[in-house]
Amino acid sequence: MFEDERSGDLGPEFKARAANPADSLDGGESLDSQAQRVARAVDQIRKAHPSGSVLVVSHGGVTPLILAHLLQLPTTEAVSRIKQGNDEVYMVRLRADQAPAVWKLIGKENLEQL
């Protein structure tokens, strides 16, 4: 997954290829591959900690993939819809026989996300 604030300056071939979640962009990690790797890690964490609280720290490119797996969303939907700025905090509550619940701490600079 490529993340760069300058992505608007990238060429049309890159933009077209980056939109394909299976494209590894000539040797990088495809979005599909990254999502599978993150899902395996989440499953390992859940298996190691079947109850109680767990803290997971990640960067903005991984958080949508974690939430996609937990919420059973398509990866491309999660990546396009879940935006994480610096220093944002999410809390996810997982309970048997219930849908996951997600909370996001929002500072006054992000009030439009309410």
> How many structural units, i.e. domains?
1
What are the segments in which pLDDT stays under 50 over at least 5 consecutive residues? none
Given the C-alpha coordinates, what overall shape results? globular
Topology, number of strands: 2
Helix-strand pattern, N to C?
HHHHEE
Provide tags for this entry:
single chain, 114 residues, mainly alpha, Rossmann fold, two-stranded antiparallel sheet, 9% strand, globular
List the helices and strands and how they pair.
Blueprint: H1 12-18, H2 31-48, H3 63-71, H4 75-81, E1 89-93, E2 101-105
Antiparallel strand pairs: 1-2
Description:
The structure is a single chain. The chain has a single domain (7-113), classed as 3-Layer(aba) Sandwich (Rossmann fold). A hairpin with a 7-residue loop joins strand 1 and strand 2. It has helices spanning 12-18, 31-48, 63-71, 75-81; strands spanning 89-93, 101-105. Helix 2 (31-48) packs across helix 3 (63-71) and helix 3 (63-71) packs across helix 4 (75-81). It has 114 residues and is mainly α. The chain has a two-stranded antiparallel ribbon.
Task: Write a brief structural summary.
The chain is mostly helical and 114 residues long. It has helices at residues 12-18, 31-48, 63-71, 75-81; strands at residues 89-93, 101-105. Helices cover 36% and strands 9% of the residues.
